[in-house]
Amino acid sequence: MSNDVGRFVWYELMTTDPKAAERFYGAVVGWTAKDVPMAGGMTYTILSAGDAMIAGLMMMPDNVKAMGAPPNWSGYIAVDDVDATVEKVKRLGGAVHMPPTDIPEVGRFAVAADPQGAVFLPFKPLPPPTPPPTPPVIPPPGSPGTIGWHELWSTDWEKGFAFYSGIFGWKKDQAMDMGPMGTYQLFALASGGPAIGGMWNKPAEVPATFWLYYFNVEAIDAGAARVTANGGKIVNGPMEVPGGSWIVQCMDPQGAMFALGAMKK
């Protein structure tokens, strides 16, 4: 098992208006965009922070629209063997929405969901090319434009943790008592190091389980102002969180959920 197993190594937005999303995230997060032609006339847009490729965006496929899925962000998680991981997902009660599939000259991936329904993508990159640079963790601060926190909104985070630990070897880190909202459980990679994300039971009014990704910006108030100025919505916050950093949870103009994180208000 490599030290990268269980690490989020790529992020992807499926949206109903790629060009509008490209403009929005460029204005809010500061990403630059580069279109890459794909087979069948499809265009895949690479979003970068400086020289570091961070994420991609694409038009939501018709079959995904037909399922009623809203625009959404997803995370690719590194594994040593996609096919073996998919079999483990099935054994542990998860679902496989797309079987292992090769991306020419990039790697092999699948689309899976945990037993509570949150989607993730097991991924094994080809060597070469190597995986995109790994975003720093926040806190301590990550560079603006990187993705520094991964948050599972679940209906049963304890069962969710057992599932992901069984798949990726994730370990429990600090647990935070959030009163009536329950426990917020931080998790870290099997290889060690600081926490890379947290899990909790979502509020009842949130309709579905999902992974929420936090994009680093320099200051939270300015970031939140850019969200609304460019047609997005503030869902929750801004607020200070343990460790002294600030967050705000948002929705882009097409309806995809995301969050911003910063060390300055």
List keywords for this structure.
2,3-Dihydroxybiphenyl 1,2-Dioxygenase, domain 1, alpha+beta, eight-stranded mixed beta sheet, globular, 18% helix
Quick structural summary:
The chain is of the alpha+beta class. The protein has helices at residues 18-28, 62-66, 82-91, 157-168, 220-229; strands spanning 8-15, 32-37, 43-49, 52-59, 72-78, 95-103, 107-113, 119-125, 147-154, 171-177, 183-188, 197-201, 210-216, 233-240, 246-251, 257-262. The chain folds into two domains: 8-125, 2,3-Dihydroxybiphenyl 1,2-Dioxygenase, domain 1 (Roll); 147-262, 2,3-Dihydroxybiphenyl 1,2-Dioxygenase, domain 1, CATH 3.10.180.
What is the secondary structure topology, with strand pairs?
Layout: E1 8-15, H1 18-28, E2 32-37, E3 43-49, E4 52-59, H2 62-66, E5 72-78, H3 82-91, E6 95-103, E7 107-113, E8 119-125, E9 147-154, H4 157-168, E10 171-177, E11 183-188, E12 197-201, E13 210-216, H5 220-229, E14 233-240, E15 246-251, E16 257-262
Parallel strand pairs: 1-4, 5-8, 9-12, 13-16
Antiparallel strand pairs: 1-5, 2-3, 3-4, 6-7, 7-8, 9-13, 10-11, 11-12, 14-15, 15-16
Q: Share of helix among residues?
A: 10-25%
| Strand element count | 16
Order of helices and strands: EHEEEHEHEEEEHEEEEHEEE
Q: Termini separation (Å)?
A: 40 Å
> What proportion of the residues form beta strands (DSSP E)?
35-45%
Q: By helix and strand content, what is the structural category?
A: alpha+beta
Physical arrangement of strands within the biggest beta sheet? 2-3-4-1-5-8-7-6
**Which whole number gives the mean pLDDT?**
91
State the CATH topology of the largest domain.
Answer: 2,3-Dihydroxybiphenyl 1,2-Dioxygenase, domain 1
> Which homologous superfamily in CATH is the superfamily of the largest domain?
2,3-Dihydroxybiphenyl 1,2-Dioxygenase, domain 1
Number of domains: 2
The low-pLDDT segments are 135-141
For the largest beta-sheet, the strand count, sense and barrel status come to: 8 strands, mixed
Q: Nearest-angstrom radius of gyration?
A: 17 Å
Shape verdict: globular
Query: What's the architecture of the largest domain, going by CATH?
Result: Roll
What is the name of the CATH class of the largest domain? Alpha Beta
Please, how many helices?
5
